[in-house]
Every structure is written in structure tokens, then in C-alpha cells.
Amino acid sequence: MSYPDANQPVQLPPPSNRVRRMGQIFMLVLVPVILLGGLVLGFRMLSGSGAAPEATAAPEVAAQIPAQPSPVPTVAPTLLAANTLTPTLAPTLAPTPIPPEQIVAVVNGQVVTTETVRMAQAVDEAMTDLLGRPTEAQETLLERVINLTLTGQAADRAGFVLDSAVVGTTQTQLLDQAGRSLDDLTGMLAQRGVTLGQFEIYLGQLLRSEQFLRQQAQSSGSTAPLVLQRTQDEAQISLGMAAADFAALPSPLPTPSPTPPPVAESNATPPPTPDLVQRERGIGVGQLLPDFSLPTLSLDEAATPVSLGADDLIGTPTVLSFYTTWCPYCERQTPILVESAASALGQGVQFVGIDVKEPGEVTLPYVQRHGILYPVLLDESGSAATAYGVPGYPTTYFIDRLGQIVDRHIGALTAEHLSAYLDRISQ
Hints:
Elements: H1 22-35, H2 40-47, E1 103-107, E2 110-113, H3 114-131, H4 138-158, H5 165-178, H6 182-190, H7 196-220, H8 224-233, E3 237-239, E4 293-295, E5 307-309, E6 318-323, H9 328-344, E7 350-356, H10 360-370, E8 376-379, H11 383-387, E9 395-399, E10 405-410, H12 415-425
Parallel strand pairs: 6-7, 7-8
Antiparallel strand pairs: 1-2, 1-3, 4-5, 6-9, 9-10
Helix pairs in contact: 1-2, 1-7, 1-8, 3-6, 4-7, 5-7, 7-8, 9-12
């Protein structure tokens, strides 16, 4: 997909644990290809075997999937604008500003709008109905669109192109395998306001990203998931006001039903009390917050850093906010946090900020400028952000006094949002 452009990127933390396995990270790009018919190509790619359809980085290929434009300081229409058959690949002379409430993310200066994400969602739903595939989990949709944007940008920089014939061949294969016709596909798409032309562009972008990752893995002696991880590590991203609409909080892993204890004999050891049972850590609702131990930012440069750990937060309801100093949406949110932190003391709620992948000398002026009085921790390696599955900035977790995850908000909080969350964790 091609998206509009903007100018204020921020650093994305190492994302390798945003899903449970490295292979699942890659699936955030690949799953639509599998969804679009369970293609042999997709399954071979996961196993590392099989040949890809022909692709080339040579500029002389006649018919190509159009590359995304390089970021420029203007805003252009989305590639898959509603009711259009062909993409707009260049900025307009008089770009229309995008309302803040329609911005989902800014990926290396490129804006992802609600229209773009909903278009991808509509295509997925149509293919689910057409092919009888299960619906993709909501929380992966945003990550997949962001990953598709990142790999598209990387493919542009490398001059990687895809023969457009591959799109037609793949489309025919998936319809044949499903026993469906082109009219069936067109009808399913039309029910959701998507044209066949838009679908073919989207499919081409998926295939281009998939083949680019494969080519990069082969040339570097690596794997496609690791190539994607490196691309993510180098990315700059921030999450807009609309991001929360597409990022549901992951559900906790299912917990086995407790086994009824056997009839106790006189010398039997009593079962452990609930307080002694080890709770599972994770980012799902009701799970114990993931562990970390990070140094606190000190206003006195000569002072010895003091570390604060996840377990130190247990006992007090906590607002835990991941941010960076160059994230425009963090800049917008921080004054709201600062103001609320003071008043929340009366509710017995503590605020903790975690600055990600920046040294203390970078975040200190930010803290002083905003008058932040609550503790700020330094996650210079990004390990805590990874453990908490942070997809971009800002991301804020709300934790109850037992240390359990109550909710997560990605993107900038409003005062109204924050007030509602505080009421929930202070009960």
C-alpha cells in the first residue's frame, strides 16, 4: 500500500517479542498471503523450502507492481482510496491535511490512516468469507499493516520490483484451489466497498514484501523473520490517536482448570494457598506484569543510579507509560500525564514513565521541560519495551494493586481516556 507522508518519526523498540515466536512476527506480513488461499508459496516460505515466483531487482522489467513513493514533506492521498481503481503514486500539489483522529501511525515519515487499515481489514474479511478461512485476530491487523509499510519502504530503497504477472497467476491459483470464480471474488469485495483493482494492488504489495524478505534472507544467509526484525529495529514510528481502534489488548493465555485435590490422608501435604501459587506473567488482561529492572533517571548526574523493578510496582495501582523524546504523540500526551499524576495521588495511583532506547542525557531535558515529577526509567536496550509488546509510541499500561494488567492504550491519551482508566485501576 502507499500511504501519505509526514515529518515526525520516532524510534520503534525491538519488536521480536511482540508475538510469541519469531515465526509469528514474519506471519504478520505473511498471514494475508496464506489467508488468500493457503498458497503453497506461503507455506514453503515458512519452512524455508521451495522456489519463489520469479522476481527481480532490475529496473528494466516492463510490467511492475508500482513501488511506494519515498517520504516527502507533504501529504498525499492513500493508495487504496475508496472507489478508485488505480493508486495515486505522487503527492498532489495542494495536499489535504489529514485530521488527527484519522492518523493511525507514522511509519518512517509515512502516515497510515484509518482508511488504509480498514481497507486491509475489508479485504481480509472478504477473503475469509470467500475461502472459509478463520478471521485474523484484531490485534495483529495494525502490526501487519505497519510491517507491510516497512517492508515496502525497504523494497523501494533496494529497487526491488515484482513482475505484475505474478499477481494474476497467484490470484488464479487461489481461486482455483478454493473452487471459486472471479465473479465470486468481485462480489465479495464489492459487498465491503472494495474494487477488484484495489484488491490486486493489495495482493501485489503482499507478494512483493514476501519475496523481498525472502531475497534479502537468501543474499545475507539469514532468515526472513530476522530480516523483518532488523527492518523493525531500524524503523521510526509513532502511534496516532486512531491507533487504539485497531489494537485490542491481547487476551491472556488459557489457564487449565484446577484439578480437584484427592481425598487427603492424615499425612498428606495440604495444597498451596492462592497466595503461594506462582502467577503467570504476560501482557494479557489479568496477567502479572512482565518483569524488568531498569535504572531511574536522576536529576543529579553524580548520583548513583537506583534501579526499579516490576515487582516494586505491586501494591499500588500504576500507570506505566512507554515513550520517546522525539515522538510527537508522546509530546502531546506528556502534559496530560503530568497534570493527572499530581491529582491521582489522592486516588492512591502512581505514575511511572519508561523512556526507550535513549540515554539519560537525552531524556533529562525532556523531563525538565515538562516538569515530570514521577519516576522515569531508562530502557536503553529496549528490552522492557519488547517484553511488554510495545508496537510503537506512546503505549501505556494500566496495572492494578495486585500487579495485574487491567488495560493497555496505544497512541496518545486524552484527559478523558486517562480519567476513565484511573477509575478502573483505583477501585
